[in-house]
Design a protein that fits this description.
The complex is a heterotetramer. Chain A is an alpha/beta fold. Helices cover about 40% and strands about 25% of the residues of chain A. Chain A has 2 domains: about 170 residues, P-loop containing nucleotide triphosphate hydrolases (Rossmann fold), CATH 3.40.50.300; about 80 residues, no CATH class. In chain A, strands 6-7-8-3-9-10 form a 6-stranded mixed sheet, sandwiched between helices. A 4-stranded antiparallel sheet of chain A has the order 2-1-4-5, covered by helices on one side. Chain D is built from 13 helices and 14 strands. The chains are: A alpha/beta, B mainly alpha, C mainly alpha, D alpha/beta. Chains in contact: A-C, B-C, B-D, C-D.
Chain lengths: ~250, ~300, ~325, ~400
Amino acid sequence: MAEPILATRGLIKRFGGLVATDQIDLDVAAGSVHALIGPNGAGKTTLIGQLSGEIRPDSGSIRLEGRDITAAPVHKRCRLGLARSFQITSIFPDFTARENVAMAVQSRLGHSFRFWRRAKSDPARTGPADALLAEVGLEDRGNMPAAALSHGEHRQLEIAMALATAPRLLLLDEPMAGMGVEESVRMVETLQRLKGRISILLVEHDMDAVFALADRITVLVYGRAIATGTPAEIRANQEVRAAYLGADEEEG
Amino acid sequence: MLLLIEQSLNGLQFGLLLFLLAAGLTLVFGIMDLVNLAHGSLYMMGAYFAATFITWTDSFVLGAVLALGAAFLLGVAIELVAVRTLYARDHLDHVLATFGLLLFFNELVRLVWGPAGRTIQLPGILNTSVELLPGLSYPTYRLVVILVGGLVAFGLYWLVARTRTGMRIRAGASDREMVGALGIDIRKLYTLVFGLGAVLAALAGIMAAPITTVSIGMGERILIVAFVVIVIGGIGSIRGAFVAALMVGMIDTVGRAFLPEILRGFMSVPAANTLAPALASMLVYILMALILFLRPQGLFPARSG
Amino acid sequence: MRVTPRLVVYGLFMLALAMVPTLAQVLAEPFLVTLFTRMIILAVAAVSLNLILGYGGMVSFGHAVYLGIGGYTVGILAEHGTTNGFVQWPLAIGISALYATVVGAICLRTRGVYFIMITLAFAQLVYFVGVGLYAYGGDDGLTIYTRSDFAGLIRMSHKPSFYYLCFAILCIEILIIHRIVHSRFGLVIRASKSNDRRANAIGIPTFRYRLAAFVIAGSFCGLAGAMLATQADYISPAVMHWTRSGDLIVSVVLGGMGSLFGPAVGTIVFLLLEEVLSSLTEYWQLVFGPMLLLLVLFAKRGIDGLLPGGDRG
Amino acid sequence: MNTRLLATAMAFALAAVPAAAQQKVKIGFLNTATGPQAAIGQDFRRSADLAVEHLGGKMGDLAIEMIYEDDGFKPDVGKQKTEKMIESDKVNFLTGYLWSNILLASYKPAIDSETYIISANAGPSQIAGEQCSPYFFSTSWQNDQTPMAMGEVLNQKGVKKLYVIAPNYPAGRDMVAGVKRTYKGEVIGEDMTKWPDQLDFAAELSKAKAAKADAIFTFFPGAHGVQFITQYAQAGLKDTVPLYTTYTIDALSLPLIKDLALGIPGTQFWVNDLPNEANKKFVGDFKKKYGTYPSFYGAQAYDAIMLIDSAVRAVKGDLKNKAAIGAALKKAEFNSVRGSYKYGNNNFPIQNFYLQTVVKDAEGMLTLKNEGAVLKDHQDTYAAKCPMK
């Protein structure tokens, strides 16, 4: 196998007595969609926090395309090609949808110590922004204040913002949380289109989406990765069924 | 040596006074997320109430108790009329609105009590000094301040850590919605906590009054130092406020007392005499900048994020 | 820029300010010029605060410190015989910028209420430095016996000339702030106010931009300090008192945070209000205090928010 | 007047201002009416009002128009109000001025506009020295003088080891320098406290006690004085280490300090029982009107109005004749409540300084009692630096 785009080794994070991340070794193959699943409280968000740089691990290392980013700040990781969406919608509510994406475009264009030229009408920003809005299906929402968009549109907008930074790897933290069926379908379509172009690490509760999209799945329980494999392998894994899927299937 | 002990007592006494003021401030911030610049006004109002009630009742203790009651009512009234509407707002709004309250109370006091200020006469027994060690006599009243401050610190710790109300308070600090879910009337709790903060501020004002007299603007001068205390301690943390208050009290007092001598050790006497008072007045702020540089959330961060 | 009723109001306002010296002459009220010079200088300070407070969401409770730094730079240089304005004023700006860089680097590590408090604490620190400047008058302040001299280009002691200088500086400042907030840099500042976490997540290291904005705001306010000291021929620690920082915040909010002209209007309305109320009653703060509360509760966007015509920005 | 100006300022209304016919003498009085120091301002203004009343509202043939402005204890506001009184009200005289920082801020516009400014309290050394001006007069004193008198008192009392505690601002430093100028014993300790926000002097008092001084010298004006003396008494020092003060105990602070002040000496250029007719009338009528003794601030304000009156009458109401007014002011030919005095070359009074102590009057009210002159016809030291002859 080629070098994984993202690799963690021995990642540990404790909060007081609680071990939220317990010796995680995770490899995300380049170009793949890798899903991270697990019951509530399994430590998914903590892990994403460490990968994106908002939480500092107690020990272990994180590599992005072979490069050690364990100590790199959030913005640096983004520059290196790691973009993320948040579990709870995180946008610039005071800005228009176009400006939300344009900010991310601007970030890619280099430093922002430009004090004089009017930026809002700068085609270097708005051109790519409009293209990305179209890509996620928000082309007619560009001039609306972001705060006024629907929940599903917010998630799409976040994807557009993440894409604007020209990422090599997308960290998507429950992109379908709180969505209706129709919106979820649209999101899956969007992600399908991205598949292959960009590597994706996907945290998601919607199992239909996970099994539809993922090349590989890692199951997290109580901070530990109890299994990693293809969707079929995971489906067949007894331990996973016991700890997690079993309950799900009984219900369903 | 005796001087060092005496200065430490002075520092302790000042620190505990600061704690009384800072505790209310940090409680209100920790639970309601409210920045209250008018906290110093409650300190002042407590002292003015006490001055009046002590004159009426001719008893220091009775007057002080009445003043605490009045301060509680005032606190509740302020909460109901003005502060309640601010919880949903951001910190800037708090700063502005309570800045307005501060101006209002200063002016109100001038209108009601006149510009001249008041003094509170201590009962004769408190107006003396006690010989603690041979050669070390210390003002009785300051010992009382230390005692009361210590008791209140302990009482607060007990209240927050051990009682039902304290549990609600802690729950309120960590998770607002959960408190609501527990069926606690959060509005009443907030009013109560604000009233409690007012009582603590007023108590500090009353305790300070016989030493520093009662005057308009007395609250602001000490309020900023109290802010330094809660920021150093970690906003919202009673324990942090306690540790930081004692730290600030000690550093301020001991700095003032010994800085000139220390500086004279390595510079000329006139230079030391010029520098020492200026440096002494900056010490607590330097301390704060240093601590925040190392720990931007203070010593005991009560809430994360 | 679209012409909205709001813009017309601001245009008339600026025009009225431009007319002050003429009006003063017509009315034989030379004091109007003096009064408005001070207002305009404080407006320069408020407009500078608006860059970080209104656009950047940084609630600095120590902005008045720059008035002192700028003022003392001019005062101390004049005391030592350097009255060349081309030396004094740039130095006033430079020292303010330097101070803002150091203090900003510490303060901007903190958030929310910590930021408010630490800026306040630094302001107190500098205030006490001023009080301790015994060689330069300490608490008594420093009288500036010779006004800054710009190679004779401007008659600094001629009140209308000086007024127009201050007015021009205000106009230039508003123009610069206008350009800044609409530039890429300005958008970063506003994005950071809107959602700092998000801004970092899309790869923008907001800290350095916020720091830069903090320094720009401090520099402008330092310039205002130099102007204030020149206008008063005097500087003292009193201008750095924490309540002065409070006054500046009040001016900005009263005029409208994050609006271009709002803070200038706010400053002038605030100072006129102070004059009117204090001439009506000695107890004017009894009225003014609750007015602040009402402003916060019912007119959060200040005067700017009350004007008709389109969105801000 | 103020409202008229504001009306014009705000509305830019085209109201023509009538050229004020010079039928009256306009006196601008800068005071501190708001803020923590308003208590002094109240006494200051009451005394000025009383002086106007005693003059029957007229100076010679001219009606008096008093224009009171509040500096809010802020130098730049004081300066602006001064300019307003000069430019807008076109006052003939400026007086009041409690604080040296406010006077220093306001000094230049007054002098530049050649308006006579009579400081009724503040007397910073700059203005007494290099920056003296023919347009400036003082009816108070220069900071050095009162402590110099106290230094003499300390010598007479045989104090060998002195401990000094004073606030760290220019007046505080002037006081310390002043007492050192005449005091011949040893200063064994010197603490300069934080100004104005230090209200607790426990640390300093502890040090003074530990140093085993013969006496403490202090200077704390206004509310700080009340606090200092209260804490001094609480620390049990009153029976062991006597206290000597300047400007710490006055008619304003006495009702607050109460009996703790009994027996504590101070020095002053004026005491309310000085046996001259002007003083008896001033103190008597003040007490009748307001129920308390006037303070020295009040005495100075009263004298300032009376000094202006003497000049206006000397020029027979010709207020345009500035040179003549200056010459008349310089003569100080009026009945000062301190007894007659002369002006030195720097236009600061050459006057006596008295020892005063706290006693109870016939009605049991605390008051200050004159114990005799310590310095006679004393001129301040900065006069030598003033280039005026």
